[in-house]
Amino acid sequence: MEKAALAAVAQGHHEEAIGLLERTLAVPEVPARFRARLAPLLARSAVVGLRSDRTVEVLTQAVRDPGLPVDVRGQLRLDLGLMLANQVGDLAAGMRELESAVEELGEVRPALTSRAMVALAMPEWPTGTLAGHREWLRRAAGLAHAGDSEVARAAVAANHASLAVACGDPRARELVAALPVEGAPAGCREHAARGLCNAADAALWRGVVPVGRGTAVGGARPLGPYRSLVHRADGAGHPPAAGLVVRAVGGAG
After folding, report:
1. I want to staple 175 with a disulfide (CB 3.0 to 4.6 A). Which of 38, 133, 161, 225 is the partner?
2. 124 phi/psi in degrees, rounded to 5
């Protein structure tokens, strides 16, 4: 079954893969070691191949599986929390799932724990306080810099820059300029693109339009298929267009 699901994914038949995986994971007798491999494959297929509402359904069901190891449940819950907060727009539910993911991932999966924490560091009304966001960022940075994941450190840098712009931190320009847009691994550039677009959005909403425009254009370099959206935002110079770019690259988290 696992080979069949992988073959379906490779051919882009994500609905077929999801059906196979859901039916298999519904069988209580499937051992935990197999569930730990199959559940993340289900989550990846859902994130890539389904509408946001259907993805939330699949991930919500997956995290309820009592046979999953706790850290694997946390990995799925991280995907669920980001999906709820960024694509669905249910910030309160997304934040709750991300906080639970932090607990489940713990020190066993520090890079993923850091990713959940750094998402919680993003200021989104009506959730959290500035002091709380800064504390999540501090904890995320500690985990990321203690580990060996360059991508985790890039995620922290992206959200640090975005938070700095959002709250008027005088270091904001320096933090934005330091994001790894050239020569870094693809995963790092993706976080840099997300950080640049989120920073542009924050700058435009705060009324710092020149900063927002320049940041959005800088974000075009690593954005690939999203480049045209960035230039549209820069050309129009309106916060709604910057918001479109943020949603296109996966939202604020």
Report:
1. 161
2. -135, 115
Q: Which residues contact 71 (CB under 8 A, 6 or more apart)?
A: 104, 105, 106, 108, 109
Residue found under tokens 């904001």: 172
Q: Residue 207's CB: how many other CB atoms inside 10 A?
A: 9
pLDDT tens profile 7-58: 888 888 888 888 888 888 888 888 888 888 888 888 888 877 777 788 888 8
- DSSP secondary structure letters along 179-218: S--SSS-HHHHHHHHHHHHHHHHHHHHHT-HHHHHHHHHH
> Is residue 245 a contact partner of residue 234, using CB atoms and an 8 Å limit?
no
Total residues belonging to the chain? 253
Question: Cβ–Cβ contacts within 10 Å for residue 197, how many?
Answer: 33
Q: What is the per-residue pLDDT across 50-97, written as a single tens digit (0 to 9) for each?
A: 777 888 888 898 899 888 899 999 999 999 999 898 888 889 999 999
> Are 249 and 197 in contact, with CB atoms under 8 Å apart?
yes
Whole-model pTM: value is 0.76
Q: Is 127 helix (H, G, I), strand (E, B) or coil?
A: strand
**Matching residue, tokens 């904890």:** 139
* Rounded Cα distance, 35 and 40, in Å: 9
Give, rounded to a whole angstrom, the gap between the first and last alpha carbons of the chain: 34
Nearest to 14 by CA among 36, 37, 47: 47
Q: Which residues contact 231 (CB under 8 A, 6 or more apart)?
A: 217, 220
